[in-house]
Amino acid sequence: MEMSDAAAVSRARTGDADAFRLLVERHSPMIFRVAWRMTGNEHDADDVVQEAFLRAYRQIDAFEERANFSTWLHRIAVNCALDLLRARKRADAHYGGDPEAAELIGVLPGSEPQQDRLLISSEMKDAVAAAMERLSGNERTAFMLRHFEGMPVEEIGKTLGIQVNAAKHTIFRAVRKLRESLEPIVRTTTRTQCT
Amino acid sequence: MHLNEEQLILHHYHDDDAPAAAEQHLAACAECRAQYQLLRSVLALVSEAPVPELGPEYGSEVWNRLRWKLGRQPRVRRAVWIPAVAAAAVLAIVFVAGAWWHSRTSQQQHVTPQLASTTSTGAMQVAANAPNTSAQGDRFLVLVVSDHLDSTERMLLEVANADPKKSLDTSASQKRAEELVASNRIFRQTATQRGDARIASVLSDIEPVLLELSHARNNLSGEELSSLQKRIEARGLLFKVRVVSAKTGETELPPMSKGTNSL
Question: A-chain residues within 8 Å CB-CB of B52?
């Protein structure tokens, strides 16, 4: 029978490397998806995955057994990604908006590939990436957590260290920006499909 | 009374207090229904952009990169991003100086070979401030990357030549590794943006090793050292770094404008 997360955490606390390995192998893809949606960059996402598991390992004694390990780890990963984005933002600030020189934080949000999904063109992917780039760090994170992770607004507020109402309005702003950028494409596509 | 955008967003995410009322209104109001459909289409488009596919071995790969770091007792240490933050702060200072310098030299329509000897942090700035004409910009990039590659090669050599039967003292090199990770990341992204796949690829290959060295405590055990040496050898990292370094050494400096004076 497969070991549960709770059992693996208990054993990892006693120094059982195989138990922690099981947690790493089980949760890495999920953490990567979160990290990638937030950073939009595979290398950064890999770094976040590494850092998240390192932090989890170091803080595993602080994990409450009644809690859900996946949720706990998820929050650590989000914090790691936020740290990275904040560091990147500082680096970006001094480039004065020069797109050639700036470190671009392109975010291409996504979800699990499914067979029955419509394939979107590379132009649309670019448009989505450009639209996501218009979002601030908080807007990107709040939107990602609500849209892709289904995290409740209250939880998003806690994660970002802001009030619930502020979290809600951050999501509103993010969606509004996305609509402004992507509605023309959606309208064009709809018209094309109708004709 | 129509549903406003915020109400439509709340309804979409099932965050509204009265979903039944919203449903009723949408059923009755064509205008709101059209707006709601548009919103859903936009969000569906965002959802369609795919996440890079991970192989079935991804979890094992993550574990293999982590395992040697976990042989120690857990401890609280400073965040890995601090070097990047520090690098960013330094970059901000250098930017002001770089902008002044760039402006001054542009006015003189003059480019000097002294660029190649700038510090790695200054070099990053020069790479970013380099002329946007691709040929000239690429030459600047390889010039400033060469210093970084030299430092990286020295660090890789220290690891590759160390005796795996003994532990390796990394207390002096850990800080340097952190700085190299920060600068490597910036150079890699600059190379990618400028379309220099060769440099970007090498920088991408060496980054995980630098990252592991930056995470090392005061020393690497023989086992950890051996694992790292195998990775350096298996990926031919030293060879790749030397090849790129050699090619950057062949790169000519941007030509000086006619009629200008040297400093």
Answer: 36, 42
